[in-house]
Design goal:
Chain lengths: 320, 426
């Protein structure tokens, strides 16, 4: 007979709390690091947005309440004038640019990424090599690829114009980054080129999770490949795709480096990050720029909450 | 033998040795110098500081920065407001003094015996509330570069007015293109939305008699018909005599088109003169320079006053050596070297009559004429708000040039924006 050890409820509770303590102990260094590098800068910049701090006087800012966001006063003539970021046309232009950029680039990247992933998911010779090769644009630092593209898109000696001219697609050299109409297009092209591999990789991971027998069953039933894609592949890859899209969306909403190198001062591509930095550093309106970066933070936070919420609603609808 | 074997004596010897080492190290310091890099600036700079390094035993480490003055300013301001102790000497743009005055050492005392040799107007631009913020290193004023060979071929004279320039450029461009030179353009300049466009547009406006955006007394003068006429003429160049991409060009892009032989005229700073005459240049010996044209019946041309200065950081570790380096670089001998090797305009008046410079860089004495017509950007009256004023101005100009609203409309909005920015006073 082997002696059986009886676990009393009090022992269980003791073990539980011990585990909790250990877990907490392991978490402390991480939490401390997060507070130091994420929470402190965040709250400090939110604090700055309520003061009149400037870069030349970083520690002497006075509390001004919501003036950087919105303030108004009535002139003796009876006319009321509004000041602050929330009535700043340049700010709303930047918000519009950012949203436009994020929506267009992420949807196109998801589309192309999915296509690339479908190709890579197929069995063919040298698949490993192609998979590695396709990641190259993603591996190049953004600054380097942006500079590279700005030379390629140069109107006089850029290769893009040269090729298009030789192919007879355009009759005159296009000033990609200078022209207001094509500046956003240029930025989008480079961003899509750069981040499609990332999207493809995440989609590929999702595709490989799909069990093979579902496809086999559909083959036996003689289902059309297009129908297979929409009825089997897409619904099953959706969770992975949703995660990929939210990652890219967060990235796209705070886009900075690419635009800073490619079209730094064009009002048709200025995003929220660009305009906030411009105010903070170049115009010596540190507090005003802080207010804008606080708004950007709020914007992204709201978007994430909304996205997760909408995602849940969708999922529960599926399970019914 | 026994002497060395004893461990105590060995230790003493060793400590003496290290003490000797560290004391020499204390004398020879590394001075960190940051500067934007255009053309061959950095190579030239390394040659210029050699004598100082040899004399003092110190070394100078050059930290190259991007060529755009806006990028440099943003980085320097961050470093300075964080009290960065790693950088000792900053090369500063002529417009920065009022904005960065608090962060630099007052040079008045250290340079009082040499400062009177420099152009008083430049010294004044670097003096804020009686404090000499930066020491003039070289001055800059742009000129009109033109292709002698092409003008001769088409029997055209060097244009005196912007209108003449427009017709000449068109004539040469059309002629050359018909002859198969498809990539040739009439006129290249700096049209990207940045500080360089403020310089270009200020020249058009001023040479049309349209004032200088914000006058010395702080009055906003930009919204006037002459300024609008100037911008309208410039707008007519884009995509006719200037490539459409000119709206994204800085100095180096314009020089790129010019130096490959693809432009008849170019507006640029003196540095392009030396580079254009180097062996690998396609326009070597084929071009000359003159003062910028006038326009709209106005009789005086204008060239934006540029130039670079040396400032010593308050937070640097080697202030004494830094001051010495600044004095050396701004001295007559070094400025002469800089003029001979880099076609940089000296800030010391007597160098314009120097025989060597006259012989090797005949352009420099002639640049005195350009310099006499130089117009300052409104950095002094607008003080810390200058960057925003300049940004609003170049945005309005860039919009006009890219056909977003007319010059009249954009200048009216600009005036309203500047008035609001000014508030009760600059």
């Amino acid at each position: 007979m082997t002696p059986t050890h009886v676990v009393s409820p009090s022992d269980k509770a003791e073990l539980q709390s011990q585990r909790k303590r250990a877990a907490l102990l392991f978490l402390v260094p991480m939490l401390a690091a997060l507070v130091l590098v994420a929470a402190y800068p965040l709250f400090r910049s939110i604090y700055f947005s309520f003061t009149d701090t400037s870069l030349t006087n970083l520690y002497g800012g006075q509390w001004v309440g919501f003036d950087n966001y919105l303030s108004w006063r009535t002139l003796p003539s009876g006319r009321t004038i509004y000041r602050g970021t929330l009535v700043d046309q340049a700010w709303w232009n930047a918000v519009w640019n950012t949203v436009r950029f994020a929506v267009v680039s992420v949807s196109l990247e998801a589309f192309f990424g999915m296509m690339v992933a479908l190709v890579l998911n197929a069995e063919f010779k040298g698949r490993g090599l192609v998979r590695a090769a396709i990641l190259i644009p993603w591996a190049i630092p953004t600054i380097v690829s942006a500079k590279m593209w700005s030379w390629m898109l140069n109107d006089q000696f850029g290769i893009v114009n040269d090729v298009l001219m030789k192919l007879g697609i355009i009759s005159q050299k296009i000033a990609w980054t200078a022209n207001v109409d094509t500046a956003m297009l240029a930025v989008l092209i480079v961003d899509i080129w750069k981040t499609t591999p990332f999207m493809a990789l995440l989609c590929l991971a999702g595709l490989q999770m799909i069990p093979k027998d579902v496809y086999e069953a559909s083959k036996i039933d003689g289902v059309h490949p297009v129908k297979v894609f929409f009825k089997i592949t897409l619904p099953l890859v959706k969770p992975a795709l949703m995660v990929a899209i939210i990652f890219r969306m967060l990235d796209a909403l705070r886009i900075f480096d690419l635009i800073y190198v490619l079209t730094p001062n064009s009002s048709s591509t200025k995003t929220m990050s660009i305009i906030s930095r411009e105010n903070m550093i170049e115009f010596d309106k540190f507090a005003y720029g802080s207010a804008q970066s606080t708004l950007l933070f709020t914007f992204i936070a709201l978007f994430v909450i909304l996205y997760i919420w909408l995602g849940r609603v969708d999922l529960s609808g599926d399970s019914k | 033998m026994t002497l060395l074997r004893s461990p105590i004596k060995q230790a003493i010897l060793l400590s003496l040795f290290t003490a000797a080492l560290s004391s020499t190290a204390a004398y020879a310091v590394e001075v960190n110098f940051v500067s934007g890099a255009v053309g061959k600036d950095i190579e030239l700079f390394k040659k210029l500081v050699k004598p100082w390094e040899a004399k003092t035993g110190n070394t100078v480490k050059v930290v190259p920065m991007p060529s755009s003055t806006n990028d440099q300013f943003a980085q320097y301001r961050l470093w300075l407001s964080a009290g960065n102790a790693d950088v000792d000497v900053y090369q500063t743009d002529v417009i920065w003094a009022p904005q960065l005055a608090d962060q630099f050492v007052d040079l008045t005392e250290a340079t009082k015996d040499v400062i009177k040799d420099h152009f008083p107007s430049i010294v004044e631009s670097q003096t804020v509330d009686g404090k000499l913020v930066a020491m003039p290193l070289f001055t800059d004023a742009p000129a009109l570069y033109y292709r002698k060979d092409l003008l001769e071929k088409y029997g055209a004279s060097v244009p005196k007015t912007w209108e003449e320039l427009t017709t000449t450029a068109k004539k040469v461009q059309e002629g050359e293109r018909a002859a198969g030179n498809k990539d040739l353009w009439g006129f290249v300049w700096q049209g990207n939305a940045y500080e360089g466009l403020t310089c270009n547009a200020l020249e058009w406006v001023k040479s049309f008699g349209g004032g200088q955006i914000v006058e010395a007394d702080g009055n906003i003068s930009i919204n006037n018909p002459k300024a609008a006429a100037a911008l309208d003429l410039a707008k007519s160049w884009v995509n006719t005599i200037s490539p459409p991409g000119v709206l994204s060009y800085g100095e180096e892009e314009a020089r790129g088109v010019w130096q490959t032989g693809n432009a008849v005229f170019m507006r640029n700073w003196p540095y392009a003169y030396g580079l254009g005459n180097e062996d690998d240049s396609k326009v070597k010996g084929k071009f000359d320079v003159t003062t910028l044209p006038t326009g709209g019946g106005h009789d005086k041309s204008a060239a934006t006053l540029g130039g670079w200065n040396l400032a010593v950081s308050k937070y640097g570790k080697n202030q004494k050596e830094a001051l010495d380096l600044v004095k050396f670089l701004a001295s007559k001998e070094t400025q002469k070297e800089n003029a001979l090797k880099g076609s940089k305009l000296p800030t010391i008046m007597s160098l314009y009559d120097d025989a060597d410079i006259k012989e090797k860089q005949p352009i420099i004495p002639r640049w005195k004429d350009v310099f006499l017509q130089a117009v300052p950007r409104p950095s002094a009256p607008t003080k810390v708000k200058y960057n925003e004023v300049s940004s609003k101005f170049w945005s309005a100009v860039h919009e006009t040039l890219s056909d977003e609203g007319t010059a009249d409309e954009n200048l009216e909005v600009l005036e309203a924006d500047l008035t609001e920015l000014k508030g009760k006073g600059w």
